Amino acid sequence: MKKIVPFVSMMIVVLVVLVLGQNWLAQINKPPIKAANTNQVLNIYNWGDYIDPALLAKFTKETGYQVNYDTFDSNQALETKVKQGGTHYDVIFPSEYLVSKMTQEGLLAKLDYSKIHGFDNLSKHLLNQKYDPHNEHSLPYFWGTTGIMYNDQVFHASQLDSWGKLWNPIFKDQLLLIDGPREMLQPAMQALGYSLNTENQAEIKQIFNKFVALGPNIRGIVTDEKKQLMINGDANISVTYNGDAQVVIDANPHVKFLIPKEGGPIWTDNMAIPKNANNKKAAYAFINFMLNPKNAAQNAEYVAYSSPNQAALKYLPKSITHNPVLYPPMSELKNAQHYNNQPLRYFNEYNEVYLEAKTKVSLDGGLK
Amino acid sequence: MKDNTRAKAFFAIPYISWLAVFVIVPIALLVYQSLTNAQGNLTLANFHEFITSDVYLPMAFNSVFYALIITAITFVISFPAAYVLSRLKHRQLWLMLIILPTWINVLLKTYAFLGLLSKSGLINQLFATLGFGTHNLLFNHVSFIFVAVYLELPFMLLPIYNSINEIDPDILKASRDLGAKPVNTLTQLVFPLSINGIKSGIQAVFIPSLSLFMLTTLIGGNKVMTLGSAIELHFIVTQNWHMGSTIAIVLIFAMAVTMYFTRERGKRK
C-alpha cells in the first residue's frame, strides 16, 4: 500500500499534465472561430484533399462565412455520418450511387434552383442522369472515367483496345484490378456487353463466370498501391481511374492510358445539401462559389481530376484541357455508362458476387 | 475473513467490468447477428449457407492450411533458435534484438515489405547483382507466407525460450554425464520439458494466422483470401453483418478447438 499510493498519484499527475499541455497547444495553434452565431458558419464534409485550401479562404473573405471543413475517405463513412444525424453538415460530396441511395432514404434536400447561379456552366453530358433525374438533389463536382493504363515498353495499345482483350493469355499474372464490388466486376460486364447496372440474374451469373475465367491473368486486386507499382515498373497493366492514371503518367512517361472501344464507366462526385443542414443559405453561397468558372478552374488545377464545369475549361492551361487522359474526347465517351443506384436487393447481390468471385479466384490460384 | 472477500470483490471490479463490456457483450452481439437475417428474424440460414455454399468451407480449409504452414515454419525456426539463445552468454541482448521489431507497428512493417519485395526493392537488386534476374515477389502465396512468418516469429520464439530457460541446467548436465548424445538430450529432455512453451507458441501463432486480413490485401494482393478477409469484407464492403458474424463465430469455435488441443495437461509439482 505504501508504494501503490505514490505510484497512482504519479500516474494521475502525468495524465493531468498531458491533458493541460494538449489543451494549451490546441489553444495557441488554433485561434477560436470569431463567428458568434451559427448563421455565420458553414460546415463542409468532403473527401480528403479534394479542394484547393486557398479557395476556402477566398470564400470566407468574399461571403463572411467561417468554414468548418471535415473530411472522409469512403462513401460508406459519409452515409453513416449523415444518417446518424449527430452532425449537421451543410454541403456534402457523395458519389453518384450514393446520391441516389441517400435520396431514396430521404437524407438529401431538394435543390432550390432559384438560389443557384451558374448551373449552365456545367457540362451537359454529366447532367440529368438516372441517379439523379433533372439534378434535383445534386450537382457534379468532379468526374472521371475508368480505362486501362499500361507500360508501352511491354505492351501495345492494339492489344488492349477492347475490354475483352484482357482475357488474352499473354497477360498471364499481369493485370491489376480495382478493389471494389462494381469496379472489380466492371471489365467482365463490359466484355460481355452487359449494362453496368444489370439486374438480370442470368447476366449476373455469367459476369461471375467471366470474372473467374480472368483469374490466371490477375496479378492483384488493389486500391491505391497500383499507382506506385505502375510507376516503379512493378506492374505493367492496370485497370484504373483516369485521374490516377495521370498521376502515374506524370511520374513514369512510359505509362499510357486508354479507354477501350466499348467505353468506360463514368463516375461523378457531387455537391449536395443534407436535409438536416443548419445553414442552407451558406450552403447555396458555397455551391454558387464553386460553380463560378474561375474558382472551378483553380480547384481543378489543384485537385487534378476532371472538372464538370465547361465554362471553367478556358481558364485552365491547354496542357490540362488538351490532355486526353483527363479530358477524353467526346468520341471516346459516347458509349460510356453511368453507374446508377439499384434497389438494395441487387446492391447486396453484387456484393455477394464480388466476394464469391474474389474467393474463387484465390482458391483457383492455389498454392504454387 | 469477511474483509478479505470484500476486498477481493472490490479488486475484481475492473476485471469483471472489462470482461462484461469487451468480451461478453460483443460475443453475445456476434451470436445474435449470426442467428438473424436482414429482416431481424431468428434463423440458422447463415450457418446453412456457410456449410453449403462453395465459398466458405473451401475458404475455411484454405485458412487453416495457411495457418498450419505459418505455424510449422515459425516452429522450425524458433525451436532451435530458442535452444541456442538459452545457451548464449549475452542472451538478454540477443533476445532483445528479436523482440525489438515487435515494438514497431505491424502496418508499418508490412509497408516496409511492400518496398523490399518490389521490383526495384533490395531483394530484387540483390538477385540482379547475383545474376538471377528480377522476379515478381509481391502478390503471391509465397510472399504472403514469408511476411506472415516474419511477423509471427517472436510470438513463437518467446514462450519456447522461456520454457527452455526454465529447465534446470543440472538435468542437462546429468544427461550428458550419463552418456546421452546431444540429439537424445534434445529430443528426450529439452523437447518434453519445453512442451508447454511450444503449446503456447502454437496458440499465439496459429490462432491469429487464421484471421490475417491486412496482409492478404497488401502482400497477397487479394489473391489470398482467409476467413479474416471475408469477415472484413462482410462488415465493411458488403455490409452483411449477419454473414460476417457467422464467420466470426466459426472462427471463435476453431480457436476454442485449438485451445483445447494445446491446453496444459497434468500440473507439474
Automatic annotation (TrEMBL), chain A:
UniProt name for this protein: Spermidine/putrescine-binding periplasmic protein
Organism domain of life: Bacteria
Organism for this UniProt entry: Periweissella ghanensis
Keyword Magnesium assigned: no
Record-annotated membrane-spanning stretches: 7-25
Keyword terms of this UniProt record: Membrane, Periplasm, Signal, Transmembrane, Transmembrane helix, Transport
Encoding gene (name): potD_1
Keyword Transmembrane: yes
Entries under InterPro entries matching the protein: SBP (IPR006059), Sperm_putr-bd (IPR001188)
SUPFAM superfamilies xref list: Periplasmic binding protein-like II
Subcellular location(s) of the protein: Periplasm
Automatic annotation (TrEMBL), chain B:
Domain of life: Bacteria
SUPFAM superfamilies: MetI-like
Keyword Amino-acid biosynthesis: no
Membrane topology recorded in Swiss-Prot or TrEMBL: Multi-pass membrane protein
InterPro entries given in the database record: MetI-like, MetI-like_sf
Major subcellular location class: membrane
Keyword set includes ATP-binding: no
Localization (cell): Cell membrane
Domain ABC transmembrane type-1: 60-262
Keywords for the protein's UniProt record, in alphabetical order: Cell membrane, Membrane, Transmembrane, Transmembrane helix, Transport
CDD domains for this protein: TM_PBP2 (cd06261)
Residues spanning the membrane: 12-32, 64-86, 93-117, 137-158, 201-221, 241-261
Record family assignment: Belongs to the binding-protein-dependent transport system permease family. CysTW subfamily.
Protein name: Spermidine/putrescine transport system permease protein PotB
Provenance organism: Periweissella ghanensis
